[in-house]
Amino acid sequence: MQVSGKVLVCDSIDQTGIDSMKRAGLNVDYLPEIMPAELVSSVKDYDVIIVRSRTKITKEVVDAAAKAKIIARVGVGLDNVEVEEAEAKKIRVINAPEAASIAVAELAIGLMISLARSIPRADAESKRGNWIKKELMGTQLSGKYLGIVGVGNIGRNIGRLGKALRMNLIGYDPYPINREFITETGMIVTDFNTLLESADFITCHVPSTPDTRHMFNAERFAKMKPTAYLVNTSRGEIIDESALYEALKNSKIAGAALDVFELEPPANKQLLSLPNLVCTPHIGAQTREAQELASTVIAEKVIQILRGVI
């Protein structure tokens, strides 16, 4: 069944989703570099607004979206969308949390291995002609305790990969953790402080909320082992970057890997200069497979909502 309506795609998304919506009868305008002022002035004409992480759907945008039925984020989380404002205007807000779970999990494991074996430094020094083999004594993941903060789709995928690497799993989540997953992996479920004190590697998978802002701060770093590594591929706001800088500089923890930052691109040059920090430019979901799936999932959800199916 064909559907009608106008769709504004505000950020770069995979072509598969755009093609699906067009085949279903939707009129799609693809403006991946649209600026805030232009968005506010033009959004009144659209039934559906689609974003990734670049575009912010502010109250001003929501107020201007006179015809909007759906606001969709092609990705995990909705922290760049004023959800309450949208829902107050009877606008459906959707995302695709399932699409990036494997990609983000694989990156988190890759960052752990990069930290444990100093891969970025080894690569850089080798290319400079410096043979620093004796300086690069690493540690194995096998047998270590992997603390997973937030055991949702991504956290569970990381747990399975960690288990395959013969790591022991510790999990913390304010919400109940899937019982079948606990049985499958032998995860030890504990409180946050016990996880901090026990884990050799900690990986974070929580949304950005007032409760999670700076949940990793000086007090929490002081509880971690001096040999522990921290990986964050969720949201930059959950880590106090100034406290992380002090913890890394003073060897309170062994190292950290960040794919996300409080401000993006990151502005904390002191933190970026540390040799025991590995960083990537928010590429957790940046695989061909994840982007295609996210685009396809959102397109299908939009079509089904407009058909009145979901």
What's the quick description here?
With about 300 residues, the protein is α/β, with parallel strands linked by helices. About 40% of the residues lie in helices and about 15% in strands.
Mean pLDDT: 96
- Structural category is alpha/beta
CATH homology superfamily of the largest domain: NAD(P)-binding Rossmann-like Domain
- What's the total count of β strands? 12
> How many structural domains in the coordinates?
2
Identify the quaternary structure here.
single chain
The major beta sheet can be summarized as: 7 strands, parallel
Low-confidence stretches: none
Count of runs of 4 or more consecutive helical residues: 13
Highest CATH level, the class of the largest domain: Alpha Beta
CATH topology of the largest domain: Rossmann fold
Query: What is the spatial order of strands in the main beta sheet?
Result: 8-7-6-9-10-11-12
Approximate strand percentage: 15-25%
Percent of residues in helices comes to 25-40%
What is the string of helix and strand elements?
EHEHEHEHEHHEHEHEHEHEHEHEH
Tell me the Rg in angstroms.
21 Å
User: What would you say the CATH architecture of the largest domain is?
Assistant: 3-Layer(aba) Sandwich
